[in-house]
Amino acid sequence: MSSVLDQRPMRAVPGPRPAPSGRRTRLLALPEARWALAALVLFLAALPLYLLDAPAWLWGSLFTATYITGGWEPGWEGLKAVKDKTLDVDLLMVVAALGAAAIGQILDGALLIVIFATSGALEAVATARTADSVRGLLALAPSTATRLLADGTGETVPAGDLKIGDTVLVRPGERIGADGQVLEGASDVDQATITGEPLPVAKQTGDAVFAGTVNGTGALRVRVERDPVDSVIARIVKMVEEASETKAPTQLFIEKIEQRYSIGMVIATLAVFAIPLPFGSALQPALLRAMTFMIVASPCAVVLSTMPPLLSAIANAGRHGVLAKSAVVMERLGQVDAVALDKTGTLTEGTPRVTDIRPLPGTGLDEDELLSLAAAAEHPSEHPLARAVVDAARERGLDLADAVDFASATGQGVSAVIDGRTVQIGAPGRLVHTGGPQADAVVGALEDDGRTAVLVLRDGAPVGVLGIADRLRPDARATVAALTKLTGRTPVLLTGDNERAAGHLAAEVGITDVRAGLLPQGKVTAVKEWEAEGRKVLVVGDGVNDAPALAAAHMGIAMGKAGSDLALETADAVVVRDELATIPAVVALSRKARRLVAQNLVIAGIFITLLVAWDLIATLRLPLGVAGHEGSTVIVGLNGLRLLREAAWKSTLRGGAV
Questions:
Q1: Catalytically annotated residues
Q2: Of 215, 141, 221, 209, nearest to 179 (Cα)?
Q3: Which of 55, 244, 394, 646 is the most buried (most CB within 10 A)?
């Protein structure tokens, strides 16, 4: 079929060249990152000079430059917020840093500036990288397509110019240019980017195909059924963008009260300064009391109550193969109360493997001989099932005979002459044979167990059946059980694979709620339904088809080893080593971090309350106020660092306490 379809002449149609796919934004291309780096370098240069009692003009100049490079942007944004009649902690942090410098605590102020500048830079990087990955998704769809004209000739046109009703030619190995229906031809199409199915799907006349999927060895004529802007791949891009824009703003706990705290602190500071003046207080004592009040009431300890536990949890999780992209992510992971898992590449390894070798009685073949025979015939083929068979033979160290007269029939299988005998391998329903019911019984049993059955014929007679499946990850069952214990609900399986394969795998791991045959929109719909019920859903996936659900969910975790770029960038966290067991562990670690944050807030609140009361009721000397303020900061910082310990991670695996 491919030779007939490929004989037509072609002519190129002039048109606009497609825009090159977007490159990843370089870190230092972002102004926030450049300013934060400059502030950090200046701070690190000033710190040893300050500690070694170098000349004050030297370290003072460097610290001043730190304040300027790291503080001008949040300060400017804070002033614009004031213009809009709002007040935020960022501006107060800059003011507190300047206040600390004014009373000689220049190191503390510079450290605050560096922390805030770095936080802003990380947020800018995360935003830019997500935008890069969404743009990169567009590269999955081909930029051009071969449109067939009425006279049978073909013309190369931009894929975006295709119209509903056009007929396009898709050659072997090409990406399909538009969603449509097969008019002529047969081929195996890899549509894992859309449905997540681990194996190519046989397509023939009347079957639907999707833009961006990869054609196999056959040629297809496809009638365009959907405008390119409405294709499934285009809708995935749109869903990811919309979910990223409409997802509720992520804020740390302390940021939720920043407006009231900020306004209250400013009003209180002004009051402490102004009220004593009409009653005869001198200007300098009133100013000193107000400055002391601002220092002891500043939210430094409150801010550090939040960050050290979360940053320690991030570092600990990173050592064990889980990358949480921000402190906000680490905080929100502990809130999840429902989990949705993808199948292929998440619960399974994502690669087809031979799971069953069934020689038929009376053939004289054992398992190794049957596998060796099949692998010899499949060896020249590039089909994923063929590679699985050959890999299985290699793992057993089997010798493969030379294949002669190899032939491959799209959608049916392969044939070759092995040691003078004709061997055919393929789908049971596509091979013509004269065997009895034994082969049919074995095929039926394997398919009932969720396997893909491959029939092996020798000289036209069945000699055995191979079962092929995507292998379950070793820690899948334990992970499902741990997530069930953590959330109080059994995880749900969301997959684009067929219902029988999904149901069999779900039964193996203990999942009872299975949603199979889903396109990306179906996964998003399921997540939104649960979110509407008040659940905070964690979605775990790895493919392009999972990206919209990862973006729409309360939290998304991507499997890193074979995960698509879009899934890795869209997800809030990445399991770098593909160890499923780390997912419940990082959720438990997040919950422990949240408990430590609460403890630290109580400690910071007690210190602030006592110091403020002392300053207002009696006379709190400035050095004592600074010492109390810094003491509370050190205490909450050290308390948060407890999560750096190896024992903190191990206790999450045991379900213990920190």
A1: 342
A2: 209
A3: 244
